[in-house]
Amino acid sequence: xxxxxxxxSQPLALSLxxxxxxxxxxxxxxxxxxxxxxxxxxxxxxxxxxxxxxxAIVTTEELExxxxxxxxxxxxxxxxxxxxxxxxxxxxxxxxIRGLSSADYKTLMLEDGVPVAPGxxxxxxxYYNPRIHRMESIEVLKGAASLRYGPSTIGGVxxxxxxxxxxxxxxxxxxxxxxxxxxxxxLGATSASQDAKFGAVxxxxxxxxxxxxxxxxxxxxxxxxxxxxxxxxxxLKYTDYQxxxxxxxxxxxxxxxxxxxxxxxxxxxxxITNRRGIxxxxxxxxxxxxxxxxxxxxxxxxxxYWRYSTDNPASMAAGRWVYTDNLAGNNRRFERFGVETRxxxxxxxxxxxxxxxxxxxxxxxxxxxxxxxxxxxxPRTGTLxxxxxxxxxxxxxxxxxxxxxxxxxxxxxxxxxxxxxxxxLDKKVPNTSNKVDTSNTEWLPGLGLTxxxxxxxxxxxxxxxxxxxxxxxxxxxxxxxxxxxxxRSVNIEAGxxxxxxxxxxxxxxxxxxxxxxxxxxxxxxxFQRTNGGKTLHxxxxxALLVDLGAGFAIKxxxxxxxxxxxDGNRVDANGNITTPDGxxxxxTPKWVANLALEYAVGxxxxxxxxxxxxxxxxxxxxxxxxxxxxxxxxxxxxxxYTLVDLxxxxxFSKQLxxxxxxxxxxxxxxxxxxxxxxxxxxxxxxxVGVSYRF
Length: 694
Description:
By secondary structure, this protein is mainly β.
C-alpha cells in the first residue's frame, strides 16, 4: 500500500487526532478567526487593487441569492467565462475563459488553494467538479499574478473557497423539478478561548434528472483547527464525495430533438465518481512583516465510466442509439500527494518598499487506467483490455516581488519554473518495452503593474508566459515519446477598475497568443507525432454594478471574443490541410452577456437575471449544419440562446430562511452542446428551499 493511500485510508482517525490536539493545547488566542486557507486574491479591502490583472469574486451573498445547482452556474456571470453545458448539475466540468474552448482544460481550478483536477499532468482534468453546496465564495484571478499557483494557468485561476465553521447547527432542505431532493447539515463549534474550531458540511442529494439523467450524491466536508502559540494555526480539512450518475457522452439524434422528444439516450450508462481528500494547512505569522504558509495535501479520485457499445449502422437507420450487449468500463483511479510552502515578506529592496512572495511545490501524481470488457449478462466485470499506470512528478519554484514605486504606482515582477517528468507503465506490453518516459522544464516570466489614477479609478496591465503540459495520454501514446511540447501562450491584458458614486466597474482588453496547441492523439492518427499550431485569442470583457437606490441594483457583465482562431493552416502527415487558417476554435462564442435586476427590501432579496450565449462552432472545420458522421459524432453550429432566471430569498428571522428559484423562466428550448449526439439545455424548473439555524 502506498504512502498516499495510507494517508487517505484513515481520515476520521486523523480528524480525531487533531481534535485531541485541540483539547491538549490550551493557548491564549484573543479573537475569533478563520481557519488557514490559501486565497488567490484575499479578503482584505485592498487585495483586489494589489492584483495586476482582472479579478472577480462571487461572494457568499451572491451564492445565496443565485441558488446555483453547480459551480458552473455560479461562475456563469463572471466576465470572460463561457460554459459548455452537458447536464444541469455539471458533474463533468466544462469551463472556458477568454476564448479558450470550454471543452478543453487550460484554466487552473483550485479548492482552498489545492488542485481540483484529478491529474494536472497525467490525465483528464474534467472528471471531478466540486459541489457548490460547500462553497462560501469563489475567486477568479487572471493576469501575471496567476503564475504563483501552478501549470495550466493560461486562462487564469479559479479558486473555490469552502465554508468556514460557524458555531451552531443549520439544517437545509431543498426540492423541486425532476424530483430533486437535497438535505444539508452544517455544524460548528469554537472553544471558549477561541483557540480551536471544528465544523462540518454534509449534503445528501438525489434527482431523477432532466431527461431522466438522474444522480445520487453524498458530499461530506470536515474541518478542524487550533492555535499553536500566539502566532501559528494548524487546520485540517477532510472531504468525501460520492456520486452515481446516469449520464453518458451520448445525446439525442437530430430528428428526435426537432420532434421535441426528451429521454435519456443512454439509459444503462453510468458515470461513477468517488473522491477523498485531506488538506493540512499551517500558517505562521513570524512577525509583522513575515508570514509562512505550508500546505500538505493528498487525494484519491475514482472515476468508473460504464458504457454500452452501439450498433452504429442500425443507430443511423433508426435515428436513435441502438445498443449491443457489450459493456465497456473505462475506469481510472487517481492518486495525488503534494507539499507547497509560501513565504511572504515586506521589506526595503534598493530603498524601495517591496512585497515578496517565494514559493516551492512538490507534487506526485499517479493514474491507474483500465478498460474492462464486460457484457450485459456479466456487468462491471470482465477481461482487462487496457491496464496501465501513468505517473508524473513535478517540482515548481516561483518568486514574485511587488515594488511600490510611489503611492500610486506598483510594479510586480515574477518568475515560475516548473520541471516535471512523466512516465507510462503498460502491464499488457512485454517487459522489454513496457515503460516509456519524458521530461520537460518550463520557465515562465511575468510582469505587471497597477496605477491609481485617482481615488476611484485604477489602471492595471500585465504580460506573462503561461503553459499547459501535454498529458500522458498525448505525450506517451503508443508507448513512445511523441516529442510533444507543452502548450505555451504569451498573455497580455490591460484594464481599468474602480467606483464612482453609484457605479462600480471593471473593463479589460486581453490577448493570448499560442505558439503551440497540442492535437490529442485520439483525434487523428496522422497527428500522433506532431505538435499543433498557433492560435490567437483576443477580445474585451467587463462588469458594471449600478446602485439605483430604493433597494434596486443592476449587475451586468459581458465578454466579446473578437478572435479565437487558428493562425496558419494545420496539415496532416501527408500535407493535406485539415484545419484552415482563420477557422474559429470550438466552443468560443463571440458574445456572452449577463444582466440582472436585483431588489432588496426588509427581509426580501430578489433577482431577475438574463444570460445570453452567442452561437458557436463545435468542430475545427466550423461546420454549419448539425449532422452526425458514421462514427456517431455530431458536429455543426449551435445557435445562440438566452435564459431568464428568477430568484427569491426571504429571511423570516435570523434562524429561518425560505428561498425559491425558477431556472429558464421562459422555457427556452436550446442546444447546449454536441458530442455523440445533442445535449439539450434544461427546460424550465422550479426549486424551493428552507433552512433553519439552531
